[in-house]
Design goal:
single chain; 127 residues; mainly beta; seven-stranded antiparallel sheet; 1 helix; 7 strands; 9% helix; elongated
C-alpha cells in the first residue's frame, strides 16, 4: 500500500467537512496497570482503560457552520460527533467534548484557530 497523502485528510462533524482546517492530530492511548506477583522477575502489564484526544487546526472562519458548532459545543459543554479522515473514505470516529479553543492573531498572518477535543467513549477505527 502506498503512503497516504496529508492533503487527502479532513476533519468533519458527522459527515460535514469543517472549513479552513488544514491539520489535525489524533492520539489514542491505553492506561496500564502492573499485574505482577511475587516471584515474577519481569513486569506483567495489563491494559485497563483506553482514551483518545486530538486537536484541529486551521484558519478561523466565522462563516463556517462547523467552526461555529465547535465553539458552541465548548461554551455549552455539549458533545460533537467527530470524524478524522485519513483519505476520502476512511476515518476514525467518536463523540468528543471540545475542551479548548485558541486563536492568536498577528499582523502578518491569517488568524489561526485550534480546537482541542477529548474523547467521550470509544473511538471507532476505519473498517
Amino acid at each position: 500500500m502506498a503512503g497516504l497523502k496529508g492533503y487527502s485528510g479532513s476533519f468533519r462533524i458527522a459527515a460535514t467537512a469543517t472549513g479552513d482546517i488544514n491539520e489535525y492530530s489524533l492520539d489514542i492511548e491505553a492506561n496500564t496497570e502492573d499485574d505482577s506477583e511475587f516471584g515474577d522477575a519481569w513486569e506483567d502489564p495489563s491494559i485497563t482503560q483506553k482514551k483518545w484526544s486530538g486537536s484541529v487546526k486551521g484558519k478561523i472562519n466565522l462563516d463556517d457552520t462547523n467552526q461555529a458548532a465547535l465553539q458552541a459545543a465548548l461554551l455549552g459543554g455539549t458533545t460533537v460527533a467527530c470524524r478524522f479522515y485519513t483519505d476520502g473514505t476512511d476515518y476514525y470516529s467518536g463523540t468528543g467534548l471540545i475542551t479548548k479553543m485558541s486563536i492568536s492573531p498577528a499582523v502578518n498572518n491569517l488568524i489561526p484557530v485550534e480546537f482541542a477535543v477529548m474523547g467521550k467513549g470509544a473511538l471507532t477505527p476505519p473498517s
